[in-house]
Amino acid sequence: MQDIVIGIDVGTGSARAGAFTLDGRLLGQAAQPIRAWRPAPDHVQQSSEDIWAAIASAIRAALLGIGQVTVRGLGFDATCSLVVLDRDFRPVTVSPDGAAEQDIIVWMDHRAADQAARINAGDHAVLRHVGGRVSLEMQTPKLLWLREHLPDSFGRAAHFFDLPDYLTWRATGSTARSLCSTVCKWTFLGHENRWDEGFFRSIGLGVLADEGFARLGTTILPPGAPVGRLRPEAAAELGLPAGIPVGASAIDAHAGGLGVIGAALPGEPALNRRLALVGGTSSCHMAVSPEPRFVPGVWGPYHSAMLPGLWLNEGGQSATGALIDHVITTHAAYPAERAAAEAAGQTIYQALNARLARLAQGLDHPARLTAGLHVMPDFHGNRSPRADASLTGMIAGLTLSATADDLARLYLATLQAVAYGTRHIIETMNGQGYAIDIVLACGGGTKNPVFLREHADATGCTLVLPREPEAILLGAAMLGAVAGGAHATLDAAMNAMSGAGETIRPDQGIRQYHDSKYAIFKEMYEDQIKYKKIMTERPGE
């Protein structure tokens, strides 16, 4: 009977499960969609019950056809969304319309903009560890919003979980939290092993301090530490034997980081040169160092939040996959192009990539198709390094034409803009002690060869893909492998289970072109700030 570990990954739109051998080979995987509700502008909500049911379906489907196995451990990752439960662990609504089952404020929900701004107006020491400004995607602004706008829900709440920690509770019954979530999204000071009582009192959440932070968690474990064993009720729901060890969880992007950043590479380049790029609905850019590095506009430094003993810096883009989808699906040519792609057995991305290749015939490089078309990609604000959720998107170079060729060019310009955002993050991190020139990439975007090419060329970095494409699921499985004793440490799990795949090197012949477009990319930000200032000073004109 073969030993395996199972990784469970909950993204923004689906729950996935993967069964892996102890050396990192994927034997089976499955995905199930999860629901989301948008009851008001900037509100995005989900249901913990719906997500757990999707996980159960995904696990059962992933194990079909792989034969008799012994499950050595379970690991969970998920988006950094806020789950609210009462004293009996029942859902507490987070919705302004009172929908009882909607107990999750999704990471991308922007309802707490005012609360984040008020927190950032204070001189709080903990903000040094989030790049100087708390993001409205983090949990303290959302908790403050709940207290101010849904006081009944806040009062009924007995447990505030990050979604990954909710999943380990659901599996084991343990309310222990992960250092990954609490440090990265809740302002827990992992290097001092404490919550900052003064901070919570000063921002209006002193009641949590009065309670000894019981609602936030008082047992904090490093990722992969044994959090408990699969309890019988959960085992029956998931179709697994009871008693399987479960590891302390990770945020989904950080699981992807575990799946790629430790891969053996030619010449063994130092961690200081490596960046893990985890792309999906949004993107995260993660690097680690032995000492704390305070990078303006980049989250962290977080101690041991991903790898034990190392400090994590985390950049990010609030909308990447979501932005690309938005640009494509809102274009006038999209319905006809989607129908044609489906008739040809292609995705819309494959069809657009093929059209770009045809349009680029006669050019020395396809990137030149966007010479007069420029995108500022902050349609959902800027996470890093501007750290300004109020920023909006811009497109320069549009004409009255809206053909399929125009859609293809705009799609390419959007991919380039996302890549320039990555370049901006890398530049900022390199200005504070990193020497990043290798990007280890995983996630949905890395299945698109044009996305990868533009990232390599625009950043000037070498891109390395993982041997196992499902690196986020693999990272989650590593958590279970460590908890179950299949590997002694996360370092050992990474060495045994991950490896490098394809390498994509930048084309130096197009470097000057991208330098010019990158300069325009940064000028567009300056223009937007200028316009906002004018409208603020002269609103009536």
Question: How are the SSEs ordered, and which strands pair?
Answer:
Layout: E1 2-10, E2 14-21, E3 26-33, E4 45-46, H1 48-63, E5 69-78, E6 82-85, E7 104-105, H2 113-120, H3 139-149, H4 151-156, E8 159-162, H5 163-172, E9 177-178, H6 179-185, H7 197-202, H8 206-210, E10 220-221, E11 226-229, H9 232-238, E12 245-247, E13 250-251, H10 252-260, E14 274-279, E15 283-289, E16 299-303, E17 311-317, H11 321-329, H12 334-343, H13 348-359, E18 374-376, E19 394-396, H14 404-430, E20 438-443, H15 449-459, E21 462-466, H16 471-483, H17 490-497, E22 500-504, H18 511-537
Parallel strand pairs: 1-5, 5-13, 9-10, 14-20, 20-21
Antiparallel strand pairs: 1-2, 2-3, 4-7, 6-7, 6-8, 11-12, 14-15, 15-17, 16-17, 18-19, 21-22
